[in-house]
Amino acid sequence: MMSYDCNEYGDMILVYGMCGCNAHEAARSYAERFPKRARFPSAAVILGAVRRIQATGSAMPNHRETGAPRQSRTLRKEERIIDVFRKNPTASVRSVARSLGLPRSTVHKIIGCEKWHVYHYTRVEELKSSDYVVRREFCEWLLQRHEEDPNFIGNIMFTDELSFGLSGCWNTRNCQIWTTDNSQASVAVHQHERRFSVNLWAGIINDRLIGPFEFEGKFTTEKYRKFLQRNLLPLLRVCGLSEENRRRIWLQHNATRNVREELNGMFPERWIGQGGPHHWPPRSSDLTPMNFFLWEHMKSVIYRTPVETLQELHLRIDSALRSITPEMLKNCQSSLLQRARCCIQANGGHFEHLLH
């Protein structure tokens, strides 16, 4: 095969630098910049020119050498590795190394040189078309209230319930994607949940954790109504909230609207939820500290290693709760403000790729 000439190699080096030393981007850019040329170099050809300049000061290949030069073998190896990840970005380094018969260190080194990075998936709820406007409007309202009263978010008691089981919850730590861009590293989750053995209700207000309160079976409307009537006020007292502070609480929940009477009596004009004074946007777990902090933190502690027994599960839950500090809870407020701004920027859609 005829070699490229000096001008062509020079253009390859120039485009390689303009593309941030990414050979695949350089190959694509080269074809766009010089569409009338008879042939276009692959990423391996461009890398070969770069390596030769680094080693000899010249991009031109030395055809006087015989056999298959070590450099040529290395370039073919690099091209094979990058090709695998381009076709399957979710592949692991271990599996690629095994399939190609290469050391894992070699695979890591080559994808690092190409500026490929691993990004773990973010769990996000599947949104309906009608959700976007509602989510945006809620975030705009929240930020407006914060501007009027910087203490407002600290008066919101975010609440939720979750079930823990021996087999754990859906875990994204082992889901990954190799790419040069983190903008799409999220995965939609359909609306179904498993049934577990330990069921908890909990709340967060300012720097305090409310509860948790353990309940048997499914948290039905009737169970929730009885909880509001009998258990919530004692939990607020136990956590040290004064009567004056309790009168300023805004309760947020995502439960049934059939408890409006109880909520209107306990939190008149101060609750956020279905049918409430202010509507909570559905499918918006990414906007509540209960999900983006508390439950995720607890799962990371509880399921760090497999849980063997129900007793061990209870001990892990206690350990996870003890690891939570007032400062961690307080930081949820700034995180929520950032998420609200990002949600508006995303026009009510998924915004995890905008978080810094």
What features would you describe in this structure?
The chain has 356 residues and is of the alpha/beta class. Helix content is 47%, strand content 13%. It contains 14 helices and nine strands. The chain has a five-stranded mixed sheet. Helix 11 links the parallel strand 8 (250-252) and strand 9. The longest helix is centred in the last third of the chain and has 20 residues, at 326-345. The protein is elongated. Residues 63-73, 169-177 and 187-196 have low confidence and may be disordered.
- Portion of residues in helices? 40-55%
Mean pLDDT over all positions = 82
Overall morphology: elongated
Range of strand content: 5-15%
Calculate Rg over CA atoms.
Answer: 28 Å
| Stretches with pLDDT under 50, minimum 5 residues | 63-73, 169-177, 187-196
* Topology pattern, helix = H, strand = E: HHHHHHEEHEEEEEHHHEHEHHH
**Secondary structure tally, helices:** 14
Q: Largest sheet at a glance?
A: 5 strands, mixed
* First-to-last CA distance: 48 Å
Structural class: alpha/beta
Q: Which strand order does the major sheet show?
A: 7-6-3-8-9
Give me the count of strands: 9
GO molecular function: nucleic acid binding
Domain DUF4817: 8-58
Pfam families: DUF4817, HTH_IclR
Domain HTH iclR-type: 80-110
